[in-house]
Amino acid sequence: MKLTDQDVQDMISGKKENSLLRQGMCGVDVSKIDMSKLSFEMFQFLSFNTKTKFSDEQKEKFQIEKLISKGKMKQNGGEGVKVAIIDSAMDANHVSFQDKKLEYVYQETSGTEEEHGITVLSSFFQVAPKADVTYYANNKYNKDKEKNFCKYMRDVVKRGDIKIISMSASFKNKDIEKEVQDMLKENQITLIDSKAFYKDFSYYISTVDEKGNDSFHNGYCEFEEKKGKTWIGENKRRKQKEDSILEDIEDKRKGNAQVQCGGKVFAQSDNNYKYCGYCCASFSIPQVAGLFALAREKDPNLSYENFVLAVKETSDIIPKDGIENKVVNEERLLEKVLTDKDKVATSEFTKELNEQVHTDLESEFGIEPQKEEKNTEVEVR
Question: pTM for this one?
């Protein structure tokens, strides 16, 4: 069997079966596959894990150890911020979670363990490793799953100190959704679900060359249209899809901030790690929640709306396919959050100081503060 650059491009475009982009190489012996015509860059669009068996030649050519090392988590960020995550049951004992502040809530309705949940949690902790997480395990196959969503969110409200919820899903039942929205708004809790994500965010793939230089690629877009779910390939290569859908995706990217999903490494069950060569909202939503947690660590009073504005204002601009893509710049984002917080604090201090001076003048010397005169002139027509 051979695997070439053209094969991978055909998988991306939908011309060939594309399981290798997601799970096909995970836990599989690929050492006998001829990859001599496969470049390092195109290899990075495939997915594999620490159980995948490569030949020594493949390990060296595709820098397997270097790619897997992308899964190492940073040490700081999100300290003191409490976040709830709702996703599938998972292996909460993974070695990468041992030093994390994690409460795993499992109930009868939580279902069996899946890889989805552990990837979601890993994605969050890569951004905000010091945050306090309450993880609600939920069975996505349960017919009452949305009622369970609501139940978990009531528990969040009851706890009182969690103000951010990450959920890689959305409500289909409008009545339940309305009930939840009203409840969370009343208690000043932000829900970052798939609808909130697609409103302001998207995702991208990052590859590196042999010298370690990064390259930006538009991700594979999961787009909700009225008739159902449609997968859109990178760079308009899915010719069989409607042009209008592709244009809609492009319009979304023009204004949205993008987080990296493809080209990252996430935790898997049994202390394994998976290199992810594709994008999806599920693994990007917790990253946005993590960024919000980092921002809230700097400014606990920051609203989600102002957070989104700050993210977009501080994003890097990367031109690609005629679009100026906004890519999240975490360092500049946090600098702006701190600067804006200081500006507000200075403004409030100045206001309080002026009020105190006026009070002192009035009490000590009987001088009333000068009031702004109103214009009483009548306009003659």
Answer: 0.83
